């Protein structure tokens, strides 16, 4: 790796965040306050979702939190799921919970998210928390965007006045990142352009980006010629592609890392970049929920 390219180590940073949370959780327990309780609801046997929920459960246990998982079969009705959510909303022992996405086609995702108590919505997907984010009010930030902002903060990356180009406009990453990066905050105060599948001449925008956040969902989409010399590149994507190894695949992001790393100032790897931060920030939201920081 060239000397000028610095790896943004999400794994190391997430470990630091989790250790800070662990200290707070230990202090709560020492004061006879119940440890924060994070619950997860997962439907079906999607391998990626199963792995992700297991990682969340393991991370919660590691820092002293209570963790529980409600596993429901693929054919679970929308009514049954909504009843499970209602139960968790009312359970005083559960501080926060998530409903793992994606959901089966027969379930209305918007209806499910709307049914979650905003005070327990540690994923930050409920319209109330999205609205709070948009207005700059205290609330739960969606974990992946929050993780990216934390990386900027901890690596002291100056975003003020920079041109930030975001590839992707999903409600989970692209849209909230565009709001956070344009806010009058630090990190933030950037000039933001959002590109998506209908953007014409997308390279024109990516080549002009001081900060490029890639969440477009296409493996190795961003090539070296699409990136400006000295840019900061945040890769949110994660994909399995065939490889001649024991597993038969390897993990890559939305960025052609080996080529792009030769041009940039900072870059997140895949794996080990944004992914670990997502779990760390979910745990941070759960701690906030237990402390009633945003909702009394």
CATH H-level superfamily of the largest domain: NAD(P)-binding Rossmann-like Domain
* Spatial gap, N to C terminus: 49 Å
* Number of discrete domains: 2
Give unreliable regions as ranges. none
- How much of the residues is beta strand, in percent? 15-25%
What is the spatial order of strands in the main beta sheet?
Answer: 1-11-8-7-5-6
Shape: globular
User: How many strand units?
Assistant: 11
Number of helices: 10
Our Rg estimate from Cα atoms comes to 19 Å
Helix content: 25-40%
Output the structural class.
alpha/beta
Mean pLDDT reading? 96
Q: Which sheet architecture does the biggest sheet show?
A: 6 strands, parallel
CATH architecture descriptor of the largest domain? 3-Layer(aba) Sandwich
Order of helices and strands: EHEHEHEHHHEHEHEEEEHEH
CATH topological fold name of the largest domain = Rossmann fold
Q: Under the CATH scheme, which class of the largest domain? A: Alpha Beta
């Amino acid at each position: 790796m060239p000397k000028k390219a610095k790896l943004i180590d999400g794994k190391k940073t997430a470990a630091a965040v989790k250790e800070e949370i662990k200290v707070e959780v230990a202090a709560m327990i020492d004061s006879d306050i119940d440890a924060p309780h994070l619950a997860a609801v997962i439907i079906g046997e999607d391998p990626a979702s199963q792995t992700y929920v297991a990682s969340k459960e393991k991370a919660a246990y590691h820092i002293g939190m209570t963790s529980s998982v409600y596993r429901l079969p693929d054919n679970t009705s929308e009514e049954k799921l909504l009843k499970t959510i209602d139960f968790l909303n009312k359970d005083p022992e559960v501080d926060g919970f998530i409903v793992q996405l994606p959901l089966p086609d027969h379930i209305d995702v918007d209806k499910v998210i709307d049914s979650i108590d905003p005070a327990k919505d540690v994923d930050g997907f409920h319209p109330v928390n999205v609205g709070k984010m948009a207005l700059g009010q205290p609330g739960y930030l969606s974990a992946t965007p929050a993780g990216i902002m934390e990386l900027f903060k901890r690596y002291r990356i100056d975003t003020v006045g920079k041109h930030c180009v975001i590839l992707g406009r999903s409600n989970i990453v692209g849209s909230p990142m565009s709001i956070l990066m344009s806010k009058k905050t630090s990190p933030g105060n950037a000039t933001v352009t959002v590109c998506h599948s209908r953007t014409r001449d997308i390279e024109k925008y990516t080549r002009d980006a001081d900060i490029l956040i890639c969440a477009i969902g296409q493996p190795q989409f961003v090539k070296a010629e699409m990136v400006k010399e000295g840019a900061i590149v945040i890769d949110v994507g994660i994909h399995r592609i065939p490889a001649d190894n024991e597993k038969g695949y390897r993990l890559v992001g939305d960025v052609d890392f080996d080529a792009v790393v030769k041009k940039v100032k900072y870059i997140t790897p895949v794996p080990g970049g944004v992914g670990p931060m997502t779990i760390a920030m979910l745990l941070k939201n759960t701690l906030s929920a237990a402390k009633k920081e945003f909702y009394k």
